[in-house]
Amino acid sequence: MAGAGKCLLVTGPPGVGKTTLIVKVFETLKSSYPNLKIQGFYTSEVRQGGDRVGFQVVTLDGRTAPLASSTISSPESLRWPTVGKFKVDVASFESLAVPELQVREDTDLFVIDEVGKMELFSSSFFPAVLRVLESDIPVLASVPVPKVGRDIPAVARLKNHPGATIFTLSQSNRDATKELIYSQLACTPI
Questions:
Q1: Residue 8, number of CB atoms within 10 A of its CB
Q2: Cross-strand pairs, 65
Q3: Which of 52, 113, 156, 189 sits most deeply, having the most CB atoms within 10 A of its CB?
Q4: Each residue's pLDDT tens digit, 74-119
Q5: What is the value of pTM for the model shown?
Q6: What is d(CA 66, CA 91) in angstroms, rounded to the nearest whole number?
Q7: CATH code (residue 137)
Q8: Structural domain count, the chain
């Protein structure tokens, strides 16, 4: 497995394939190293009739929970924070994603997709990410490209982590980036 403290960050514009790349790397690692202990989650789009209406958080063992929606209009959702047209269900996110970031001795890799604006509405999420980084267990994570000049402070802190390597994904380098990340993570398992 990759060296302790290694933090591989995938960034790029929306829709370039950050989540797809992370899921492919995860699946390839699990196929090549079936005993590897990988914790974490990724986010996926929720679509209705071809339109994106939300996002869900998906654990690496397949459990799901809502992250954000443009179609929910319950009395409770009126208090939820918003990002664009999406209302963020912080409680749902926290109930599934944050426990996946608990550091355990037998973990070989953490996958965190993504450390972005929606996820950062959770007051317990970024402290959990920091505990993962302090554990020296390798991390594969995605972070958004800043919209206007500067990163969100939490994202900037990740990018400045001493073990961080940043991969900027584009349409033309997706396959090569996947192979490069896989090769950095796929050393002899611990």
A1: 22
A2: 57
A3: 113
A4: 888 788 989 999 999 999 999 999 999 999 989 999 999 999 999 9
A5: 0.91
A6: 9
A7: 3.40.50.300
A8: 1
